[in-house]
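Check the record.
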Amino acid sequence: MIRLVYIMQKARILLGCFAVILLVTSCSKKQKGSQVSAFVAAKEQHVLGKGYSPGSLEFNLTEVPFSMKGASMACSARGTNDQKGLYIWDVSGRGEERGIIKIEPTFKGEVVPSKIVGTPEKLRVSTDFGNLEICFDGNRALRFYSKKGVGVRLSVKQSYALPKNNKQFRIIQGDFLRYMFTSIAGNVQISTDKISKGILIDKLPEKDGTIDFVLEEYESEWSEHKYANTFNDAVEKVKNEFSEWMEETLPLNKKYDHTRTLAAYINWSSIVSPRGLLKRSTMLMSKNWMHRVWSWDHCFNALALAEGNPKLAWDQFMIMFDQQHELGALPDCMDDHSLIRGYLKPPIHGWALKKMMAMGVVTSEKMQEIYTPLSKWTDFWMTYRDDDKNGMPQYHHGNDSGWDNGSVFAENRYVEGPELSAYLVIQMDVLAEIAGQLGKTKAAGQWHKRADDLLNTMINRSWIDGRFVSKYSGSENWNKNSKSLMAFLPLVLGERLPAQIRKKLVNDLWSDKGFITPFGPATENIYSEYYTKDGYWRGAIWAPTTYLIVDGLASCKETDHAKELAKRFVEMCNNNGFGENFDPITGASLRDPAYTWTASVFLLLANEYVN
């Protein structure tokens, strides 16, 4: 049955695929040469509508959090069995729990059933008696409003209230979280909640049925300032900001308008302002559960932003280098409050930088900024992760590869992944190019030689009997039962690989039943003994690996194959949203359902490969 679906899908996609036309025109804007980027050209050709139309996007808060660019607060209805309902979540690294303030609509002081609908500009909580509406009034404050007698109850765990004046009081929660409650219209009642060891805040309407108040998070102390004149003013400001973001989002075919808007919203709303360890505006992986930034995820988000918002894209690319260790290693992941150095993530940064350079968004100043940090990151792998001194670096754990539980690590965690060396070859090539542009002629030659040497070592050691294998460090053994997609990732080297190796890799990828599914490439062959339903890196389809494989195929001049895989992934996201990963058999979204690198890869693939 799977094979039949695959054949039908393949036939449909092949009939629907056309070559991507590179639009060339003379333009009054200052650009390098006469070639106009696809981003600019698509807008000039009116491929899609500009901006954002209010009401054109509604989303389910059990999947997609309600937040905005810069905010560390999010509203979510995605809870555990003992935490159902609508909650304000803290997505910084300061809080011990995510769902910290429960929001319940009331009527005449009693909690009433409700239905929740999110839009980018506001949240609507509908009851039989009227609606409670919530929006952001600045990226640190949530504003609540109703005009038909509907009130609201806030249940704040492990907290107490400190009055400031007759309109304001502070909410103190734990060691880090602080909120200012400001009443604009309506009456307030505060009581103790013995169960949660916190407080209950009941906001009751004025005689005309109106409530209007603001809940604002702060750090050390709240500073005196005003809010928007009206609730609608606050809504309008957010709407305009998101509309500007839509203008900067990669243009796609009109049939993806709705999904493009959702992808844009997920990425926009997942950004937090600089704070603590995060020195720049940072796109988190999600404001659901994965509210951190990891040291390869950020590269895909940078690529999706590069043409429309190059400054923010550069911030995403550089964010992990801001916390680079003195030995050269990047953190595994971090938030504003903490970081992890015990693991790494794969060095795809040279690969991503190469693509950004091709887009024309990396200036000579940026090359100067990145040259030393990227050199140190490259040297780290070659110096501190080559324990057997054979010239080929190794991972110390599956986490280091990004494929946490990948099958190549099932028997031994000290693995010399050929894709690791492939990434570093690309990185060395990019460093050679940058060195040349910066006038470092000798260094450029050295990087070229190091890249050639590593490529030869990788092929000699890892290309066995017509396929790439991941040998254990200091050993000639590898997990021979593994059928991981990792073996095909060296395709990213493109024409750097010998022609016969490229041809064999492409042929095996498409002829070995179980890798290419109707929805994209499975990370573990679905007929492998290691394949597991919802097995994370043992079968699920992931955005980054799909993009790397597609880019590798394109680099090998396998354009039709690249387009076909891109189309499958794009259609899957169009139908099933932006999960952390996907079931390779059904295409269903798995794990975190609002993941930024998935949204970014959707935008990239749909923009580059799908008409």
